[in-house]
């Protein structure tokens, strides 16, 4: 924008000789008369004119010194000579010399003023530009649309609101308010500075509008996420027949992404086709972005192949889009194709590719991309550097990660946070904590992302004592009112089993956004409080906040945990019917899960046939789990077959498969599954449970006799077993899949990790106090049944957090109602 106005100003400068006189600026006179007057007044000299022209050429080619020499040697200079020289100094940013010549001029034209105003505006001194403009206004110099445009181009922030309003007043006073171009400039400026109220008032008051007016207003709305307003205005624009620009399309598509409105976006797509804008690469990219953000990569891909012109941006969008949907193979192929093009390599989606390598734990691919990053010097970019670090750390190569870490600047919190978050995400919580402590020692201030990571570590460790320490650090760092830190705090307390602290954190937040509401709703959902989840969701809606896909996912998850089929169906349908959004893959996964858990396999199959996705492994695994609960052997075998052919990476799916075959007595298939698991390099992660007693973590794995108090633990388990049998407990030996006899299997079950942790907690804490035990995997159904009875025998509240949710055991019952 800046540049365009500037060129205009220079253009005006060269043609000004025929339009303006310096002494009667506000008089309109015929041009012939003006030229005559100038010749008499300035002693118009063809030689001067020629030299001015030469000076201008020198300035254009960056030879300011030569231009200055010419100027110094000129026998007769006129006002144009000085204007040209000033514009030369302005161009190089030497505003002091420019001002020096400006001050030395006996008289100045509008152009002179405008050049210098433009200089200040362009080089980031909008206030100086405004002061000069105010002098100009007071000196009764004629203002024109270029002056306004030049001045306004410097305002880029709300802080200049008062100055903009003053300019607006002048525009009205001088009779420019009916000039469309001037008003457009002003409107654009208001929008750019996020003064949308003023922009909209001006928009309404304009006697005449053109396409530029609409485009500016729509872009303005979209930029501050007034999405509905942007879309409405776009529709009005269509009705009134004004032509959109590429920017308008991009803005309105952005707005439809914000609204989550797929239908509307498709309409805009159709309109772009109709108006021939579809060939514009800028519009095409906005559409690609729109489709991939809606999870419609197939449509994006189709468009991508139809586009006559694609650039690096288009490729980036489509590669990242595929990556987001988990089609890594596709991303890889496209990335390889991209390397054969001559697009600027610096813009390649290195960080996306690195995160794919990190996700796939494909170190070889990560290293290849690393070497390309080095060749293109992209590795020096912070984002790429962090992605590299993350990739190595996740692949378990902490040495390489550390090398990358050392090469990044340490003054900033970002690389520290990347290192910490990589460690936390890969389960090295203590190491992450060590780095955090080192970071604090080196006086690097943690930012909200650092705290979020550390809080996540505390949540994963379920270490309430650590979480509380971090809480006080967050408090002293002043981040406690930060909505993201606040939400992470809330989440930490909820995951550490303290709903009371979580609720308190939520209530104390000075402002809450969708993230904080979602965190609180999720806390209720994880705890299996279906009614609480729904009540909170409705409360959020009543405050005027629009639920986002995550809010719906939380509500659906709660419905799935609590077997609320009707409620779940209602909320699932409301996504499209009430909120006009497209349900995402994870919504379908949860909805199918809700139906299957309640045994409505027919309905689930119908939904799967109608949904716009192919069922993925998560969906199939959850169906398999429901088949196990409802003993639906028929479907189970079918699903297991599909899963087996998908070559999934999740070991628990194989475990489920082999369980299904084992229960059906198909031992040959069990062998096949186990062999495939070995061949595909998958291992069932070892199950372990842990419990925090007096600020110390005690970790147990099944049959683990290494704890110093093993004898007491064993004694406790044995005495509990006797009592449990009296209460009618019978071990469910199908949970122990070993080719062993019944008694050995039952014996084995007794020493599952969570039971060791509970037994230890029982002998280490006072009578009647609640117990919180964490488990890295899902609890087996025998342990679930056993803990219910134990809670009754010992009269304690026992909470078990497994990989998917909380189980609150009390008086022989579990809060999950055996739905899990
Ligand atoms: Zn168990
Ligand atoms: Zn339960």
Automatic annotation (TrEMBL):
Matching Gene3D superfamilies, A to Z?
Tetratricopeptide repeat domain
InterPro entries given for it? DYW_dom (IPR032867), E_motif (IPR046848), PPR_At4g14850-like_plant (IPR046960), PPR_rpt (IPR002885), TPR-like_helical_dom_sf (IPR011990)
Domain DYW, by residue range, is 728-820
Mark the PPR repeats by their residue spans.
109-143, 179-209, 210-244, 280-314, 412-446, 513-547, 650-684
Q: Name one GO biological process term.
A: RNA modification
Pfam families tied to this protein: DYW_deaminase, E_motif, PPR, PPR_2
The record's GO molecular-function terms, alphabetically, read:
RNA binding; zinc ion binding
Alphabetized UniProt keyword annotations? Repeat
Q: Which family does it belong to?
A: Belongs to the PPR family. PCMP-H subfamily.
Q: What is this protein called?
A: Pentatricopeptide repeat-containing protein At2g01510
Q: What is the lineage of its organism?
A: Eukaryota, Viridiplantae, Streptophyta, Embryophyta, Tracheophyta
